[in-house]
Design brief:
The structure holds two protein chains of two kinds. By secondary structure, chain A is an alpha/beta fold. Chain A contains 13 helices and five strands. In chain A, strand 3, helix 3 (61-73) and strand 4 (74-80) form a beta-alpha-beta unit. The radius of gyration of chain A is 20 Å and the shape is globular. The chains are: A alpha/beta, B alpha+beta.
């Protein structure tokens, strides 16, 4: 099988995971042909790939042309990582017009021959057709291996698809708990559910596959880096902010309005990895549409 | 006018291009360009300080923990918070591990194929092609990266005020065991890199040199990541002693470039700057750990001191890996108990944090409002400081190589770029 691996606007975290595949990496490069991977090799031209793994977002015309080239040359295109799948943290740029973003950094500098910025920051499938997704910021190594084994065999990774909570090995504390809380207020009690302990934790709304390492092992509330779970994307009534506020209200015994008032910075708190996801921002109520209204979009 | 364009540059961190223009009798002009500014500084404005750390972690995968640490340090300074020793130890351990891993990738994936097979087709100088003819070489090179394996790319245990959770005793022991098992490989590879550089001595001496100032954190113990004070060593200056950087914050300058989104950064009065492995060695004189300093002696003897050749950075990265290895083992053998930090009282404050990231100075300027929200954030990354030096080295290397033909010149120019190991994602943050 011919494989291409490339990045658009990205942090390269997904490619670092690719290099962490250890034994499977050797199997992959030994049994298949890597036709294009600028991070790893010098080749600049390629004609065809059976499978292209694309990391990052489209920020400018150069990225767009590269994405289109990939679509033309590859039989199957994979959106690798949460940026390609849902916009990722870089999707927060969609809170601002591109021109303001550039002006804030470069003033009135005129660039020689640079690409034009795109007007909206969107996931990869808003620009080209995508055949499969492997979200994660970055995707966990074991999950990437399972995904690639399936992809190389011509399959899709078959996963039931649940939420981070399904993988989280914690128990419930007695309610009510103080909150809403953040890590800056101090760490939670080890082994106890962080959401029910009053922390803003997106575990119930985030897709599984990471093993819930952050909440279970590190005591860190889920930030949603694997992207919204299937039910969040599929059901119009499920919203990251509304659902979390409802759960925090139950955990703390406070009214939802009080929770909303006390959680500052909702866009980066509830939509840190998915603000650019069109399925969420098309919603009439809740979702990111509330923030998109500020940009004048209905 | 002759023009050489390399687009994209390969085996580097991120997407970038190089253009060199030259006219008869004039000094060539090299332009390293990368577009795709992501706007993290603007995106962070209005963020709660608790959201800042996971955000900036996504500026760069290979350097993610350094961004987290710099954001935490700036917030702690702004809020007047002391980090408990146990949390400092955990942070330091994580940062040495990431520096080790970052250098391992720079060497194994990007640079060593050039040094191992300088006469072969550049298209075959990569791990994938080498694996087809010699599996063992690739396994040995990549196993260096795996010595600190198991760490998440954006692993998250830092928070303003301290750390969240300690390593489990069994995790400490297994990491220490893994590190100890890599000792022979690490030392053998260091000697191999030094040998390969000596074998390419003429190329190393003609592929650019540094003719400005070196800036790095200086500490009486030797190379440190977050402790000490920023110091400057000016090349060619009488006496040649590093001196503290006075008024760092007010002397930092940024100047947009017309050929890309990486903004030039400089320090007023310091001339052309270099940060990173060469600067750290030249400012500190030694690493401060026995194995690293033992291996350093030969480098100084071969290449002189201060070291002026960017390509020698390959050997220095290897020595920094040995130093990081020694530091990690020492940290893992020490006591780990103690509080990791409590809750923070958020409020207004303004501060600057300076950290030695793998390729040099990473500077965060942070202003918080009364409500703990970010009012302003400025980030200066190592590539910004090094951009002028990189472009000058490229121009020098072009002038020294152009007679060898376009292909050879392009090959050498890419080697010079890899010697700087520039991080484009950090540069276009």
């Amino acid at each position: 099988m011919e494989i291409a691996l490339l990045s658009l606007s990205s942090c390269l975290g997904c490619q670092m995971v690719f290099l962490s595949l250890e034994e499977y990496l050797y199997e992959l490069i030994g049994e298949n042909k890597v036709v294009y991977a600028p991070f790893l090799m010098d080749r600049r031209e390629w004609d065809h790939a059976d499978l292209a793994l694309v990391e990052g977002t489209v920020r400018n015309t150069e990225h767009f042309l590269r994405a289109r080239e990939v679509r033309e040359k590859a039989d199957r295109v994979v959106a690798l990582g949460t940026c390609a799948s849902f916009g990722g943290v870089q999707g927060l740029a969609d809170l601002y017009p591109e021109s303001r973003l550039l002006r804030s950094r470069f003033g009135d500098t005129a660039f020689e021959g640079g690409p034009q910025g795109v007007k909206r920051l969107l996931p990869l499938d808003s620009f080209i057709r995508v055949d499969a997704y492997l979200p994660g910021c970055p995707p966990p190594v074991a999950l990437m291996e399972r995904f690639l084994r399936a992809a190389v065999a011509g399959d899709r990774l078959s996963r039931e698809g649940s939420t981070v909570c399904a993988e989280c090995g914690v128990t419930s504390p007695p309610l009510p708990q103080p909150g809403p809380r953040r890590l800056t207020d101090g760490a939670g009690e080890p082994g106890k559910c962080l959401l029910e302990s009053g922390f803003v934790c997106l575990g119930p709304l985030t897709r599984d596959g990471c093993g819930a390492l952050c909440p279970t092992e590190m005591g860190v509330p889920c930030r949603g880096c694997r992207g919204p779970a299937g039910r969040v994307l599929e059901r119009a009534g499920v919203d990251m902010e509304a659902e979390t506020v409802r759960r925090l209200s139950r955990a703390t015994g406070k009214k939802e309005g009080e929770i909303r008032a006390e959680v500052a910075d909702p866009p980066r708190t509830y939509y840190l990895f998915c603000l650019a996801e069109p399925l969420l921002r098309r919603r009439r109520s809740g979702g990111t549409s509330h923030y998109i209204h500020r940009l004048g979009e209905q | 006018m002759a023009e050489l364009v390399i687009r994209p540059l390969t085996r580097i961190y991120g997407n970038a291009a190089l253009r060199v223009e030259s006219e008869e009798g004039a000094t060539p002009r090299a332009r390293f360009s990368a577009f795709g500014y992501r706007g993290f500084e603007l995106m962070a404005r209005g963020a709660h300080v608790d959201n800042l750390v996971p955000m900036v972690s996504r500026i760069c995968g290979p350097d993610s923990l350094f961004h987290q640490a710099a954001a935490c340090m700036a917030a702690e300074e702004a809020l007047g918070v002391q980090v408990p020793p146990a949390a400092r130890t955990l942070r330091e351990l994580a940062l040495w591990a990431q520096l080790f891993e970052r250098h391992a990738v720079s060497l194994a994936v990007h640079s060593l194929p050039d040094l191992l097979f300088p006469a072969s087709d550049p298209g075959l100088r990569n791990l994938v092609s080498i694996y087809r003819v010699d599996e063992e070489v690739v396994r040995r090179l990549l196993s260096l990266k795996s010595l600190v394996g198991g760490r998440q790319v954006h692993g998250f245990n830092f928070r303003p005020g301290g750390a969240v959770r300690d390593l489990r005793p069994e995790s400490r022991e297994s990491l220490a065991e893994r590190l100890r098992s890599g000792e022979a490989l690490l030392l053998e590879t260091a000697r191999l890199v030094k040998l390969l550089l000596r074998r390419s001595e003429e190329r190393v001496r003609t592929a650019g040199s540094i003719d400005g100032s070196y800036m790095a954190m200086r500490h009486p113990r030797g190379m440190e990541i977050g402790e000490g004070e920023p110091a400057l060593l000016v090349t060619g200056e009488e006496g040649g002693e590093p001196r503290p950087v006075v008024d760092l914050g007010s002397r930092l300058r940024e100047e947009p470039s017309a050929h890309g989104h990486v903004v030039y950064a400089s320090l007023e009065g310091a001339g052309e700057l270099l940060v990173g492995p060469l600067a750290r060695l030249n400012v500190n004189g030694s690493y401060g750990t026995p194995r690293a300093d033992e291996e350093l002696a030969e480098v100084k003897e071969t290449w002189g001191f201060p070291v002026r050749y960017p390509m020698v950075a390959h050997a220095l990265r290897m020595l920094e890996m040995i130093h990081a290895w020694e530091k990690m083992l020492a940290l893992l053998s020490g006591p780990a108990e103690g509080p990791l930090g409590g809750g923070l009282s958020v409020g207004a404050g303004k501060a600057r944090a300076y950290l030695e990231a793998p390729e040099g100075a990473l500077v965060y300027g942070l202003e918080l409002g009364e409500d703990g929200m970010v009012r302003d954030l400025s980030i200066i990354s190592p590539l910004q400081f090094n951009l002028r030096s990189l472009e000058r080295s490229l121009a020098e290397a072009y002038a020294a190589t152009v007679r060898e033909g376009v292909e050879k010149t392009a090959d050498v120019l890419q080697m010079v770029v890899r010697a700087y190991a520039p991080c484009v994602p950090c540069g276009v943050h």
